[in-house]
Task: inverse folding
């Protein structure tokens, strides 16, 4: 399958008063045309910063470097801010966690939905309104004529998120980045929004990058998953490899902290003990070492190399070394 996005060796740091936060450290990945991938990890793992770096949406105290960031045949590292901005909305749509902070409270749904259509697609007012109505129907918003006249605060959380999705797909982008799109919603609405995104991916062949801290959220909709920790990719694989044959202790921890259908009601979820590393002073070796029960002396000294297990499955952990102890996943 053709690669739509290919990122090679991306590094992002932030210069702040007390030092440099090393948020993303040498990340490489790709997304195929029409593919849906998940990037999962705790807060501060670098998952959102990775995608904001790709989009060129970080403040000017961020330093971004990459061997290459190719999107749809173009090298983004060679593009200026103006050209990158022109791609937002038109070729890459974004859906954020809290639509209340992304939607402008001062403007109606109609004006926020028709703006990208008029700017990027050069539609006139009547055409943009007609397309806006079609988009609201596409994201299954009832009574779209009335909704167009409303302001964001007049809509429920679920409807606001549907409006955000409508804006993100308005110009038929090739890729949509959804950053924790369901975190602020209750579980029923969350399931509806995930269903909707899945449906849109199949009907429009748009690639989707789903950023989340919750592996359970992406189980049903992502074909491949990147597990990020400490600004690096700890493990990557197909959804089947990550859920049924995970090899990294951090992935084990994430899986043990989500409920399974087979769990009895009194089964306790096991949280990952400890806190994520301080990226102002990340550990010298494996970033997960301070929290890892299998940590060996080598882990504290050396960053684990990436071990390729299959065409799709790779793990960065010293346990993959042939001479390392054989550890079975618990839980
Ligand atoms: Fe644990 Fe060592 Fe593997 Fe890191 S490299 S996850 S510390 S075993």
Result:
């Amino acid at each position: 399958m053709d690669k739509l996005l290919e990122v090679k060796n991306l590094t992002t740091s932030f210069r702040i008063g007390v030092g440099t936060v090393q948020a993303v450290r040498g990340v490489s990945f790709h997304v195929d045309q029409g593919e849906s991938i998940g990037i999962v990890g705790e807060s501060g793992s670098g998952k959102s910063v990775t995608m904001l770096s790709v989009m060129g949406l970080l403040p000017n105290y961020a330093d971004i470097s990459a061997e290459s960031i190719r999107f749809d045949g173009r090298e983004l590292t060679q593009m200026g801010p103006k050209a990158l901005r022109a791609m937002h909305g038109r070729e890459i749509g974004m859906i954020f966690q809290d639509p209340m902070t992304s939607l402008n409270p001062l403007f109606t749904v109609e004006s926020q939905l028709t703006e990208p259509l008029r700017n990027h697609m050069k539609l006139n007012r009547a055409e943009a309104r007609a397309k806006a109505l079609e988009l609201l129907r596409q994201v299954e918003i009832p009574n779209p004529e009335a909704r167009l006249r409303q302001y964001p605060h007049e809509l429920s959380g679920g409807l606001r998120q549907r409006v955000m999705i409508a804006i993100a797909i308005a110009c038929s982008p090739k890729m949509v980045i959804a950053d924790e799109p369901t975190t602020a919603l209750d579980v029923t609405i969350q399931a509806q929004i995930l269903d909707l995104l899945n449906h849109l991916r199949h009907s429009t062949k748009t690639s989707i990058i789903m950023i989340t801290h919750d592996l359970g959220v992406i189980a049903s909709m992502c074909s491949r998953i990147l597990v990020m920790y400490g600004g690096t990719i700890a493990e990557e694989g197909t959804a089947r490899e990550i859920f049924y044959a995970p090899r990294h202790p951090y992935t084990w921890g994430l899986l043990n902290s989500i409920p399974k259908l087979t769990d009895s009601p009194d089964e306790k979820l096991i949280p990952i003990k400890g806190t994520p590393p301080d990226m102002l002073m990340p550990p010298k070796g494996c970033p997960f070492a301070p929290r890892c029960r299998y940590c060996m002396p080598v882990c504290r000294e050396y960053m684990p190399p990436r071990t390729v297990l299959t065409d799709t499955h790779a793990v960065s952990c010293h346990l993959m070394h042939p001479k390392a102890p054989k550890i079975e996943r618990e839980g």
The two ends are 35 Å apart (CA to CA). Residues 15 and 61 are 6 Å apart (CA to CA). The mean pLDDT is 91. The first helix runs from residue 47 to 55.
